[in-house]
Specification:
By secondary structure, the chain is α/β, with parallel strands linked by helices. Helix content is about 45%, strand content about 15%. The protein folds into 4 domains: about 80 residues, no CATH class; about 325 residues, Glycogen Phosphorylase B (Rossmann fold), CATH 3.40.50; about 55 residues, no CATH class; about 240 residues, Glycogen Phosphorylase B (Rossmann fold). Bound molecules: pyridoxal-5'-phosphate.
Length: about 725
Amino acid sequence: MTKKPLSASELTELIVGLNRLARNLWWTWSQGAQEIFQELSPRGWQNLYHNAVAVLHEVSDYELRVRLQDPEFADRVRQVLQAFDNYLKERATWCRVKAPSLVDRPVAYFTAEFGFHETLPIAAGGLGMLAGDHAKSASDLGLGFVGISLFYREGYFQQAINHDNWQIDYYTLLNPKNLPIEPVLDARGEPLVCDVEMATGQVYFKAWRVNVGRCPAYLLDTNLPQNEQHYRDLTLRVYGGDSTTRIMQEILLGIGGVRFLRALGVQPSVFHMNEGHAAFLALELIRENQAAGMDFEQALAAAKKQCHFTTHTPVEAGHDRFSPTLMQYALHRYRTHIKCSDEEFMGLGRVDPKDDEESFCMTVLALKASRTANAVSELHGQVSRQMWAALYPDKPVDQVPIGHITNGIHLLGWMKGPVRRFWRRKLSDAPSADRQPLAGETTSFWMRKPAFAWEHEVNSPEFWQRMDDPNFLSDEEIWALRYKLRRELIEFARRRLLIQGQRLSQGDFIAFDQLLNPDALTIGFARRFATYKRAPLIFQQFDNIVRLVQDKERPLQFVFAGKAHPRDDEGKRFIQHIIHLSKYSELKGHLVFIENYDVHVARTMVAGCDVWLNNPRRPLEASGTSGQKAGCHGCLNLSIMDGWWREGYDGTNGFAIGDDTHPASIEEQDKRDSANLYRVLTEEVIPCFFERDATGIPRQWIKKVRRAMVTLVPSYNTWRMVQDYTKKYYLPS
Ligand SMILES: *Cc1c(COP(=O)(O)O)cnc(C)c1O
């Protein structure tokens, strides 16, 4: 039986729907939606780097109309658009039940970086990824949420490696037309422009709206003709330029961000400063309060009532400090709007307000101007209370008012496509009509739409509990999935190396088929190459590691990736060292370095590796999140007991390097950790992975994979984390 062709208006409706869908990041965590764009242009999907907006530009309107006459395809498009609509309209959200006051008076979340997807590369690392994941889960939970950040039109740098194996940084201009962003317009349809006093002049800015499911994030942008060139370039690059650029970016973010929200008519119930970068927002709240008639003390107290602050790192360089001269230069015009003494003004950022020499610290400002503050893991909480104890001289260290909420990840956003399909199929095999609603859920669309049910289910601990049940999921299925994902990573690495290889001289070239072994225990390490993360630690025992990779029976291999900050030569030397080993040592073919680490590389690596290695210098990791992305893919963590892993590890769900202590001296620590790493690797990881039963399955290994799924995945995600923020900090106490 043939179906009636779609009418012109039906076609238009679907096409309008697809365009709307492409401009809402919801598609990045909906497998069904992603498959539509991928199917429209499989090669374009790959070449355009999974960019739905660009794919829709690639496929002509005429072609779209023709393609939609395939009834099966049109049917799927309709279903996805329906699910998208249901998502946007969903009334029975967690937030409506648990925090109704936050539905209409949103949380305003200020952050210097937002990492959403490889399509929009405007984040430098974990801080930005966390912010993006926070926004996605805020949307899923139905929380009122508005993100504020900057639109860096050259984003974060791209990494290439030159003949000396030295990192080269380069930048590419992002084209807003090809991005999932839309200009924010005023009532006349013109870009909404606000301004802020900065250094010698008035700086104007517009904004781009990113639709993150139900929530907007606004990216401020000074690239306007009415600004002088150096101000237009203020939003050129993530953390670009020197400390003058930095302070001005932060003035734009904090002060400009508040003004922009006011221009939109948004009245946040709470301002969340994600790291000290955003803390100038407190100045603008003080200014507003003074304009309403309060004196300085009252204005500060009132601002404080509205703010929450999250500190993200114990590393000193992560806390911005501006000299009094720079403060004077950048803020002297703005300063005239705040009625207070210089000591009061500068004192907002000083431990000792009377010390004229002390620089202005953004973390200090954030702590002084917030009602509550938190660190991002339990250990980081302890470290932070110690670190900032001088601000609270009348309190013992353990009563310094900095709590903690351990970080998480947005599960669906990080899940690799084949893994989403795997869980989707598993759930439709075993429909769980008897599933208990999630906390706060009443009737939900998942009950009516089984194809999308699992996208809800994936956040429920009960779902992950079932991974312990071999009747629900067999060892063989898990092992087959692991093989599929490892192969995908290896083929991805080979393809990338081939492309990277074109820039190398002949002799450096590694033959495609000699690169990596699909049967080997694959260990991954990828993150920013900050030196405290000690990327090359495992190669300190070089001869031993060579022996391990050359073991024909129990082969081991390594995949590395990561960017060093453009001004961090030490980090670049780490990269050089590792690439050198991968090309010229006995590790050749068993160790690869994938250039240009980003969200896509991260997702492919956490999915494909068997073991995710993390060996930071304790206690500097704060939380770490990349290891949290491993669990749902069946990858196990091998990590120092720092940050989240110190809380997540229970002896059955992965591997620990060392214990809950560390020596005071760095040399001592490096030596001890390197020895422990090697010991765990040879005594626990390798034997467990290669112990196969008669049918060839590593039963004990898979048991650990199950334990990781049961114990880690339902806790270390932003579905839990954003609920914690809401209950503990966002709701008025
Ligand atoms: C997850 C992630 C990070 C954070 O990794 P950590 O190991 O927590 O430092 C950084 N960059 C990218 C691209 C990521 O996906």
